[in-house]
Amino acid sequence: MTTGHDGRDTPAPNNQPASGVPARGYSWEPFQPGHTLTLKHGAYSDRLVQPRALEIAQAMADSGELPEYLAQPRYRGAVLDLARSLAQRERLEAWLAEHATPGTPLELAENGEVRGAAVLLERVERAIERHRDRLGLSPLAAARLGKDVAAQRVSLAQVWAEMDGQEGEA
Fold this sequence. Notes:
Order of helices and strands: EEHHHH
Number of strands: 2
Shape: elongated
Distance between the termini: 100 Å
Strand order of the largest sheet: 1-2
Strand content: under 5%
Helix content: 40-55%
Number of helices: 4
């Protein structure tokens, strides 16, 4: 305890008595760089998610899961966004499975409340759907993209035909 400006006793800074000895006679080692003690599920940790996202993106490219056009450099960021969301989903699903209570759905805690990780998992699932749609990887998006590409080819063919017709007239 220390005496404040008003004459009352107040706790010393950092819960340490004025003598400099840790409160209650115990202390912990300072956190070391790279520790994971403060992580819950790790879905927000770039240090854990980013390497896995790169692995997922590479595996998608190697397996042929990605259409050829997505190999272009301009799509790299969008593909990595999808891979990052997939890596986050992995971490969240693993955490929920690890902390499951027997006889209770994974999404619920022992007291029946929805776990925060389950709420985040739902958001990540929606993000994955949006990424897949934007990249043309969902069936509907692929059909829409195919239709647009086919329409563009028809339009170009018409333009070329018209240009050929105009050249013949000249």
